[in-house]
Structures are given as C-alpha cells and as structure tokens.
Amino acid sequence: MPEHTPAPTPARSLYGFFMYLFSKTMLATYCIWAFTPSYHLHYLNIYYYPQKYWATAIPIQCLVALTMFAFFVYPSSNLMLTCGIDSIHSISDNYSQTSNVNNKPINSSYNECVCLDDKICFKNKYVASCKELKENTVPPLLDLDIRMVSRKLYLNRKLK
Fold this sequence. Notes:
The protein has helices at 10-35, 38-43, 53-81, 130-136, 146-155. It has three domains: 9-49, no CATH class; 50-82; 93-160, no CATH class. The chain is mainly α and 160 residues long.
C-alpha cells in the first residue's frame, strides 16, 4: 500500500482515537473549571488555576479572530491575487476555450479516449449519425467572446 494514501491505517486509527479521547478529556476539564464554583475546587485542594474570566475571554477572542479573518483577511488576500480590471487576463487566460462561428471548439481534443481497457472501448465500434450526436450530447463548456458580449449588451442600446 502506498505511503501517501487517505485510506485508514492502524496508525491513523490510533492517532484518531487518541485525539478523540484527548479532546473529550480537555472539554470535560474545561467545563469543570469553568462551571464549578471556586470553593468546590478549594475543597479538593485545587488552588492554582486560571481566573474564571479566561473561560469566556478566550473563546470570545477566538471567535473575533475568526470573524476578522473571514470578513477582512481572506477577502483581502483574494483581491490581491485577482487580476486588475484593465488586465487582459480577466477576460481570457491559457485555459480559455472559445468557439468560432460554427460553434465548434477551437482548442479542445475529442480524439482522446478515457477508457482504461482498450479491449472493451466502444469509441471505435460505435458509429452515430451527426443528428444523433447533436441531439444526445451535451455541448462542451466554452467561454464567450468579449466582442460578441459587448455587441449584444451595448451596440443596440439606445442612449437616454
């Protein structure tokens, strides 16, 4: 079995079980510390523990940090990675597939077979008519040409 696989292994199951038990133990310890009055802890000779203030302050600070990340840091990093509005890369890139006048893709490859076994491949055995292919297949996903989009949106629009 390969080393880098997401399949469960005995070591992963042990790590998972340990993390499950550890998280449940830490949750129980946190709840006992947060909800038990101080005089009960003193009765058990437990005197050195953080103030009860931190039982609510730390989760609230974590939620504020998560909110700041979700609403400011993550969108800001996405905006920094996005091309500028005047960049040609915001219209098309190396992976764009455009169509010509006949609505046939220019840069796509239909001749590649995805079958794993050549003996049971139906690519060379099945013959369909053009009408049957047109009716029963989904056309490939293509990008719209920016000139055609601009012509449809703005050319026939009357100025107010």
